[in-house]
Amino acid sequence: MSVPSTTPRPAVEPSIWPRLEPLLPQVTKPIQYVGGELGAVVKGWDEVVVRWALMYPDAYEVGLPNQGVQILYEVLNELPDVLAERTYAVWPDLEKLMRAHGVPQFTVDAHRSVRDFDVFGVSFSTELGYTNLLTAIDLAGIPLLAADRTDADPVIVAGGHAAFNPEPIADFVDAAVLGDGEEAVLEITAIVREWKAEGSPGGRDELLLRLARTESVYVPRFYDVDYLPDGRIQRVVPNRADVPFRVHKRTTMDLDAWPYPKKPLVPLAETVHERYAVEIFRGCTRGCRFCQAGMITRPVRERSITTVGQMVQQGLEFSGFHEVGLLSLSSADHSEIGDMCSGLAEQYAGTNVSLSLPSTRVDAFNIDLAQELSRNGRRTGLTFAPEGGSERIRKVINKMVSKEDLIRTVVTAYTNGWRQVKLYFMCGLPTETDADVLEIADMAHEVIRAGRAATGSKDIRCTVSIGGFVPKPHTPFQWAAMERPEVIDHRLRLLKQAINADRSLGRAIGFRYHDGEPSLIEGLLSRGDRRVGAVIRRVWENGGRFDGWSEHFSYQRWVDAAAEVLPAFGVDLDWYTTRQRDELEVLPWDHLDSGLDKDWLWQDWQDSLSEYEQDDCRWTPCFDCGVCPSMDTEIQIGPTGRKLLPLTPVNGAGLRIPAPTPQ
Q1: Which residue spans adopt a coiled-coil conformation according to this UniProt entry (predicted)?
Q2: Using an 8 Å Cβ cutoff, are 117 and 153 in contact?
Q3: How far is the C-alpha of 600 from the C-alpha of 617, rounded, in Å?
């Protein structure tokens, strides 16, 4: 193992703005690089001890609304001796100019060079952002490989859902945090603060060792991977005695103690979401077998109705947003969602504030909820996700929704004033056939027929949106083979033909889909090991950027890079994607503990193949998934019996009416 040198940090440039500003008139949407948003924080560099640069590795319009980064930004900046600033991926037009003029990757808050910070935290919700990470590291003047970095470089820490298998980017990041970030960033900050106060003993290596000893920060350099002759992993073991064999995820248990964001960032440029978002609960136990988010965020932890009300009031007053998003993996599952929505609708009656549930299960949506969400006349979009077209495939994936449930739910929406709903499905699921996919067309046709009958109007539409299935780590489908892109594309063509076979109904149905090619590459990255890092680097060197955007993604670039790099390891693209794993295979993330018992996941995989449905453990006895005992956690759900009030109601004129003093 190479030991980095103890190169001192160079002098800090106060701001690169004088060098950046002349470039901005030459690029699209220059406003996204300016900073100064409402909610932004700028602190004096020399007034603090620990400095974080936080990144969501996508464009400003996608990255700024990211809830995770906003929360950590605020948590860190509340500490008097800590500053946190934000950086986002720059578009290729600005990247080209920055390289030509020697301008480094910068933060939008004070336009400081990312290389000058102590910690560079990057939050990944999708693996397709990996090439953007390499661009940011390289533009910052930081060595691409973690092994080549010195004390002059920040520690690069990966987080977010993709960090539950950071092995494909193990060469490029110094550390990864699994799970919730609120307490994790404070612990990392405390370690960095103490190490610096002691005079940075042992340099970078000692700092990383201190992080690793927490048993909740994964430092890839302290682990070696051995492979079998057939390409499978033989074992992943620590290469020194003082680091743990397994690294555990972080779980923040009392969400009421973390009511963030209190001061949400209000974008200057147009973004994908412009609303005040409050996470009403974290975790999900519905047990959808494809859903990594539901598996890795267990257990369910509800935020109380009173805290939600206070957060909404403060967030709207600060930001001026007109929409409130009640976020979670399945928002209508909150035990007090009815009282929550009715209380908020009552409080903001007569104003232009609207409520939205961005994630709504078919079987949790009802007429009372529909009426509260549409009370002020403004209706945000409704999306329901049956996921599978046939009843059989929904049993395989454990999405316990019947066609009758869907029709009843959508008719409820139509009769309460909605004229368009979106239905989300996946293609390429385990055991799927053409017939399973074609049933999506039948379901969409019935939705339109029922909507027209219930409303007496032909002004009814639905959009069918199809995504490609990607097996994810720490789910029952982590062993599953992926379907080839040509099979996915064939089924999508059949589905489109079936939807349009009835012209009268077909014209009322929109059809949006992602072809199979990006999904296959996401599958390579989601279940890859350290050898995949060479593929990522080759793609990036060949121009790969913004792979999550269809106009920038090149399937051929990834296929060519895999063909150039992987044969040297005795594997290929299909080996990582379309190959089914067996029970005893060591998976690249087995040493990273999400709390889920691997034997339980395997049994659930077998149950899926026999089309056995698993209940929600919130309302039934424990199924021994392993999370609660291994993480020393428990399900936290209501009802609390409280109402949203007392809060200060808002009348139609926008005047504050004092609430009665609570007894």
Answers
A1: none
A2: no
A3: 14
Three-state DSSP class for 638? coil
Q: What is the DSSP letter of 106?
A: B
Are 302 and 278 in contact by the 8 Å Cβ rule? The answer is no
Strand-by-strand arrangement of the 276-279 sheet:
276-279, 323-327, 354-356
Q: What is the largest CA-CA distance in the chain?
A: 76
Q: What is the pLDDT of residues 249-273, one digit of tens each?
A: 999 999 999 999 999 999 998 898 8
Amino acid letter, 419: R
The per-residue pLDDT for range 346-399, each reduced to its tens digit, is 888 888 888 888 767 777 777 777 778 777 666 666 888 899 999 999 999 999
Q: Say if residues 279 and 303 touch (Cβ distance below 8 Å).
A: yes
CA 658-323-181 angle, to 5 degrees, is 95
How far apart are the C-alpha atoms of 661 and 663, rounded to whole Å?
A: 6
At 551, which amino acid appears? Answer: E
Contacts 24+ apart (CB under 8 A), 441-445: 441/495, 441/498, 441/499, 441/501, 442/389, 442/498, 443/386, 443/389, 443/403, 443/406, 444/499, 444/505, 444/509, 445/499, 445/502, 445/505, 445/509
Helix locations, 175-277, DSSP H: 182-197, 203-212
Inter-axis angle of helices 485-500 and 516-526, nearest 10: 140
Q: Which residues contact 457 (CB under 8 A, 6 or more apart)?
A: none
Quick check: 5 pLDDT over 60? no
| Other beta carbons less than 10 A from residue 26's beta carbon | 11
Alpha-carbon gap, residue 174 to 170, rounded angstroms: 7
237 bridge partner residues: 224
Q: What is the pLDDT of residues 610-619, one digit of tens each?
A: 999 888 887 7
**Backbone phi and psi for residue 382, each to the nearest 5 degrees, phi listed first:** -115, 130
Distance CA 131, CA 558 (A): 11
| Distance separating alpha carbons of residues 88 and 62, to the nearest angstrom | 9
Phi, psi at 235, each rounded to 5°: -170, 160
Structure tokens at 582: 């067996």
pLDDT of residue 648: 52
568: Cβ–Cβ under 8 A, 6 or more apart, which residues?
none
102 SS3 class: coil
Phi-psi region of 87 (alpha: psi -120 to 50; beta: other; left: phi over 0): beta
Q: Count other C-beta atoms under 10 Å from residue 317's C-beta.
A: 12
Q: How many CB atoms lie within 10 A of CB 568?
A: 9
Let me know how many helices (H) and strands (E) the chain has, helices first. 22, 19
Tokens read off for 12: 């800090």
Among 11, 6, 265, 7, which Cα is nearest to 113's?
A: 11
Report the distance separating Cα 303 and Cα 306, nearest Å. Answer: 8
Q: How far apart are the C-alpha atoms of 352 and 350, rounded to whole Å?
A: 7
Burial of 322 (0-12, 13-18, 19+ CB in 10 A): middle
- What does each C-alpha distance from 624 to 119, 186, 293, 596, 615 come to in angstroms? 38, 31, 18, 9, 12
Is there a contact between 264 and 323 (Cβ–Cβ < 8 Å)? no
Token couple for 206: 């000692």
